[in-house]
Amino acid sequence: MSPRARSVAAAAASVALLTVLARLAGFGRVLAFSQTVGDTCLGTAYTTANQVPNVLFEVVAGGALAGVLVPLLSSRLVSDDPRERAAASRTASAALTWSVLALVVVGALTALLARPVMALLLREGAVRQCGDSLLGTGTVMLWVFLPQIPLYAVAVVFAGVLQAQQRFTAPAAAPLVSSLVVGVSYLVVGALVPAAVVKRGLADVPAAGIAVLAGGTTLGVVALAATHAPALRGPVRWRPALRPAAGDGPRLRSLALSGLAVLVAQQVVTVAITVAANGTPGAVNRWSYAWALFLLPYAVLAVPVATAVFPRLARAADAGRAELAAILAPSVRTVLLVSSLGAAVLAAVAAPVSVVFVAGRAGSGQTGDLSLALVLFAPALLGYGLVALLTRALYTVGAGRSAAVGTVAGWGVVLVGVVVLPLLVPADRTVSAVAVAHTLGLSVAGALLLRAVHRAVPGATAGAGPVLAAAVLAALVAGGAGVLLTSWVRTTHVAPAVGEGLLVAALASGAWFAVARAAAPADLRTLVGNARRVVRR
Predict the structure, then answer these.
(1) How deeply is 370 buried, as exposed, middle or buried, from its count of CB atoms within 10 A (0-12, 13-18, 19+)?
(2) DSSP calls for 166-213
(3) Where on the phi/psi map is residue 181: left (φ > 0), alpha (ψ -120 to 50), or beta?
(4) What pLDDT score was predicted for residue 90?
(5) Sign of CA dihedral 412, 416, 418, 421
(6) Where does this protein have coiled-coil stretches (predicted)?
(7) Are 211 and 141 in contact (CB under 8 A)?
(8) What is the pLDDT of residues 428-468, one digit of tens each?
(9) Is there a contact between 245 and 65 (Cβ–Cβ < 8 Å)?
(10) For residues 496 and 344, what is the distance between their CA atoms, to the nearest angstrom?
(11) 3-class state of residue 224 by DSSP
């Protein structure tokens, strides 16, 4: 591959090293939750209430505000012209002002409607089994969570500005700091409230435990925003502003509206998932475990590629489509390869990981639905990895509408699946049905975005077909072997499951590399070579 492709892969690997620590901390945070709160009535109230601010963060951090700012600011912030730097400061300040104002209004409205919102999300089945305290506890938690919403806006705007300057350390470290704070709060809850008490029901959980659980989570978002403070030191001069720089308004609105379309689509999907999962207590927690486990390989393997290449794409946007294609094509192939590796490992370790999360101290022991869900969810990593990269690419060429159409169409398929598929399966397979819906929808989104990028930037998908075939083959062989192995060697205890999961993950990774080396040797050699260079540094 060209030196340009190698530099993109090396930058992605550098970001990946930072992201690995954050995602490991996030994994530890979710694991701590499963052992201290678990898929219980308390867990149902907590996870349901926390969906409200969390969905805003997931969508915005996935590219909406950051995706708006990076292409607008990248070239200006490195300019020697003080007028260009002043324009960048004004646009960034306006984005921060408007996003905070809007989300404060959203938070205030949600505070007024907190109880009806929780009643909408908590189905009769969960309330009937957990009692009336489920709705009351969830409402109180939601009030405590609402300050998170404007803090997310601060974090995401600051992250966009830092990424536009190619300063990736703070955005990569922020989730690490937040996860540590929230994880500690879970451990404190575990010390205050024994697992046996949590499993008995909400009525036995003391108010101090609920306060630490909800307050610690919001404190984690405070830490998330504070970690982005390096954005206050740099070329951007922050001032309250309602108007962006001259000429930026139309593009800012266009990109923001495309992000809003995705936001609305994903919010609707999240509501549908929560309602579907709350037919029985704990199902919404098991889905949150599946989602967290899915995001781990996505964030460690695919997102660093998209994050590292985005500023370079933004700066090359004026150089012509050939320059963009030369940067984007190897990135597409890299995302396909690393996403298939993640899919293989996720499917392979599904059974032992489910035991760790659901058969622990505070778990329900219902491992079957989570295990099957992870296997069915794994193929979605390829589509979701493409979404992370290609939405950013389309933003840089002014094709925000195409990015929105492809992404919203994919989430539309997810929504239909979430509504329909759980009706076709037993209640104890709801999480698996939701996983299938995501695999279908995210695959559709990835395919639509590939087509849009192919049209907007000719040559950007060069070589993607053979690499996709190789990636799918490697994932099927490695993941399938892992599933078969764990079906032969079963364990129902956490400690042996941890060892089994580590062993199977290593074996699946080895099998994936063997197949990928035979099917896509050039791209794999470049990927491994750049990873080694980063490790040596």
Answers:
(1) buried
(2) T--HHHHHHHHHHHHHHHHHHHHHHHHS-HHHHHH-GGGS-HHHHHHH
(3) alpha
(4) 84
(5) negative
(6) none
(7) no
(8) 899 999 999 999 999 999 999 999 999 888 888 888 899 99
(9) no
(10) 21
(11) helix
* Span between the terminal Cα atoms of the chain, in Å: 21
Residue corresponding to tokens 């809007």: 102
Q: Locate 245 and state its tokens.
A: 């720089």
The closest alpha carbon to 147, from 58, 50, 230, 25, belongs to 50
| Confidence (pTM) | 0.83
pLDDT for residue 256: 62
Q: Which residues 6+ apart lie within 8 Å of 419 measured at CB?
A: 272, 276
- Phi-psi category of residue 365: left, alpha or beta, with phi > 0 → left and psi -120 to 50 → alpha: left
pLDDT at 475: 93
Judge whether residue 85 has pLDDT over 50.
Answer: yes
CA distance 297 to 319: 33
Q: Which two tokens stand for residue 510?
A: 């080895």
What are residue 401's phi and psi, to 5 degrees? -65, -40
Q: Which of 39, 46, 54 is nearest to 356 (CA)?
A: 39
Write out the two tokens for 219: 């404190």
The more confidently predicted of residues 241 and 449 is 449
Structure tokens at 163: 């990424």
Q: Please work out, in degrees rounded to the nearest 5, the angle formed at the alpha carbon of residue 498 by the alpha carbons of 497 and 502.
A: 115
Q: Tell me, what's the pLDDT at 301?
A: 86
Give the span between the Cα atoms of 222 and 48, in whole angstroms.
Answer: 20
Specify whether the CB–CB gap between 343 and 475 falls below 8 A.
yes
For 45-65, the DSSP string reads: HHHHHHHHHHHHHHHHHTTHH
Cα 36 from Cα 361, distance rounded (Å): 7
Contacts of 256 (CB under 8 A, 6+ apart): 64, 65, 68
Read off the DSSP letter of residue 66: H
- What one-letter code names the amino acid at 506? A
The pLDDT tens digits for 143-180 are 999 999 889 889 888 888 888 887 777 888 898 999 99
Of the candidates 230, 226, 231, the one whose C-alpha atom is nearest the C-alpha of residue 180 is 226
SS3 assignment, position 384: helix
Distance CA 164, CA 69 (A): 7
Question: What is the C-alpha to C-alpha distance for residues 190 and 32, in angstroms, rounded to an integer?
Answer: 9
CB 317 within 8 A of CB 324: yes
